[in-house]
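Every protein is a chain of amino acids, and every chain bends into a shape of its own. The protein below has been through that process, and both of its lines are reproduced in full.
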Amino acid sequence: MKKLFRKVLVVDDDRASRFLCEAVLEDMQVAEALTTYEHGKGALEHLKSSCIDEHAARVDCPDPVLLDLNMPVMDGIELLEQLDKLNASHIIQSRVVVLTSSSYSQDVEKTRRYGVKGYIVKPLTEEKVRTLLVSADQPPIV
Protein backbone atom coordinates (compact mmCIF):
# COMPACT_ATOMS: atom_id res chain seq x y z
CA MET A 1 0.00 0.00 0.00
CA LYS A 2 1.27 3.48 -0.84
CA LYS A 3 2.22 5.72 2.10
CA LEU A 4 -0.73 8.06 2.53
CA PHE A 5 0.04 9.86 5.79
CA ARG A 6 3.13 12.00 5.77
CA LYS A 7 3.28 12.45 9.56
CA VAL A 8 1.15 10.83 12.25
CA LEU A 9 1.00 12.06 15.85
CA VAL A 10 -0.19 9.58 18.50
CA VAL A 11 -1.09 11.05 21.89
CA ASP A 12 -1.69 8.27 24.41
CA ASP A 13 -0.31 7.49 27.85
CA ASP A 14 -0.64 3.74 27.34
CA ARG A 15 2.58 2.23 26.01
CA ALA A 16 0.79 -0.82 24.56
CA SER A 17 -1.66 1.40 22.64
CA ARG A 18 1.18 3.48 21.21
CA PHE A 19 3.02 0.29 20.22
CA LEU A 20 -0.11 -1.11 18.55
CA CYS A 21 -0.67 2.12 16.59
CA GLU A 22 2.90 2.05 15.39
CA ALA A 23 2.70 -1.64 14.46
CA VAL A 24 -0.57 -1.30 12.52
CA LEU A 25 0.57 1.80 10.62
CA GLU A 26 3.95 0.22 9.88
CA ASP A 27 2.43 -3.08 8.73
CA MET A 28 0.07 -1.20 6.42
CA GLN A 29 2.89 1.07 5.21
CA VAL A 30 0.62 4.11 5.28
CA ALA A 31 2.75 6.55 7.31
CA GLU A 32 6.11 8.06 6.51
CA ALA A 33 6.76 9.23 10.08
CA LEU A 34 5.24 8.68 13.52
CA THR A 35 5.65 10.84 16.62
CA THR A 36 4.24 9.94 20.02
CA TYR A 37 3.48 11.77 23.27
CA GLU A 38 2.26 10.38 26.57
CA HIS A 39 0.02 13.36 27.34
CA GLY A 40 -1.58 16.38 25.76
CA LYS A 41 0.93 18.92 27.09
CA GLY A 42 3.78 17.60 24.95
CA ALA A 43 1.46 17.23 21.98
CA LEU A 44 0.23 20.81 22.41
CA GLU A 45 3.79 22.15 22.28
CA HIS A 46 4.47 20.01 19.20
CA LEU A 47 1.33 21.27 17.44
CA LYS A 48 2.08 24.88 18.37
CA SER A 49 5.57 24.70 16.92
CA SER A 50 4.67 22.70 13.81
CA CYS A 51 1.17 23.94 12.93
CA ILE A 52 0.01 27.00 14.86
CA ASP A 53 2.80 29.51 15.57
CA GLU A 54 3.19 32.14 12.89
CA HIS A 55 6.73 30.94 12.22
CA ALA A 56 5.76 27.25 12.04
CA ALA A 57 7.10 25.52 8.96
CA ARG A 58 3.77 23.69 8.60
CA VAL A 59 5.53 20.87 6.73
CA ASP A 60 5.97 19.16 10.10
CA CYS A 61 2.28 19.47 10.97
CA PRO A 62 0.99 15.92 11.55
CA ASP A 63 -2.05 14.48 9.85
CA PRO A 64 -3.72 12.72 11.50
CA VAL A 65 -3.43 13.36 15.23
CA LEU A 66 -4.67 10.22 17.01
CA LEU A 67 -5.77 11.50 20.42
CA ASP A 68 -6.64 9.49 23.52
CA LEU A 69 -9.04 11.11 25.98
CA ASN A 70 -7.92 9.73 29.34
CA MET A 71 -4.33 10.73 30.14
CA PRO A 72 -2.43 12.30 33.02
CA VAL A 73 -0.94 15.83 32.94
CA MET A 74 -3.26 17.02 30.15
CA ASP A 75 -6.04 14.80 28.84
CA GLY A 76 -7.55 14.81 25.37
CA ILE A 77 -10.43 17.15 26.21
CA GLU A 78 -8.02 19.62 27.82
CA LEU A 79 -5.87 19.50 24.68
CA LEU A 80 -8.92 20.24 22.53
CA GLU A 81 -9.81 23.14 24.86
CA GLN A 82 -6.30 24.58 24.55
CA LEU A 83 -6.31 24.28 20.76
CA ASP A 84 -9.70 25.99 20.71
CA LYS A 85 -8.35 28.84 22.87
CA LEU A 86 -5.48 29.24 20.40
CA ASN A 87 -8.00 29.68 17.58
CA ALA A 88 -6.77 26.44 16.07
CA SER A 89 -10.14 24.87 15.37
CA HIS A 90 -8.89 24.23 11.82
CA ILE A 91 -6.33 21.82 13.31
CA ILE A 92 -9.04 20.02 15.32
CA GLN A 93 -11.45 19.75 12.41
CA SER A 94 -8.95 18.72 9.77
CA ARG A 95 -6.50 16.57 11.73
CA VAL A 96 -7.68 15.32 15.16
CA VAL A 97 -9.14 11.83 15.34
CA VAL A 98 -10.03 10.68 18.84
CA LEU A 99 -8.69 7.17 19.48
CA THR A 100 -9.94 6.06 22.87
CA SER A 101 -11.32 3.15 24.83
CA SER A 102 -14.41 5.19 25.71
CA SER A 103 -17.56 4.53 23.74
CA TYR A 104 -19.68 6.63 26.12
CA SER A 105 -22.03 8.93 24.24
CA GLN A 106 -21.11 11.87 26.51
CA ASP A 107 -17.44 11.54 25.49
CA VAL A 108 -18.41 11.36 21.82
CA GLU A 109 -20.58 14.46 22.26
CA LYS A 110 -17.85 16.41 24.11
CA THR A 111 -15.41 15.84 21.28
CA ARG A 112 -17.96 16.58 18.58
CA ARG A 113 -18.50 20.02 20.14
CA TYR A 114 -14.93 20.76 19.12
CA GLY A 115 -15.53 19.40 15.62
CA VAL A 116 -12.99 16.58 15.68
CA LYS A 117 -12.38 14.87 12.38
CA GLY A 118 -13.37 11.45 13.74
CA TYR A 119 -13.86 9.20 16.76
CA ILE A 120 -12.45 5.68 16.86
CA VAL A 121 -12.84 3.21 19.71
CA LYS A 122 -9.65 1.27 20.50
CA PRO A 123 -7.96 -0.85 19.46
CA LEU A 124 -6.68 0.60 16.21
CA THR A 125 -7.01 -2.03 13.49
CA GLU A 126 -6.23 -2.12 9.79
CA GLU A 127 -9.96 -1.90 9.06
CA LYS A 128 -10.26 1.28 11.15
CA VAL A 129 -7.22 2.81 9.44
CA ARG A 130 -8.76 2.03 6.04
CA THR A 131 -11.98 3.73 7.15
CA LEU A 132 -9.94 6.75 8.21
CA LEU A 133 -8.12 6.83 4.88
CA VAL A 134 -11.29 6.48 2.79
CA SER A 135 -13.42 8.90 4.79
CA ALA A 136 -11.29 11.99 4.35
CA ASP A 137 -13.99 14.50 5.27
CA GLN A 138 -15.68 12.98 8.31
CA PRO A 139 -14.75 9.45 9.39
CA PRO A 140 -17.60 7.66 11.11
CA ILE A 141 -17.48 6.52 14.69
CA VAL A 142 -15.87 3.08 14.48
Observations:
- Confidence is low (pLDDT under 50) at residues 137-142.
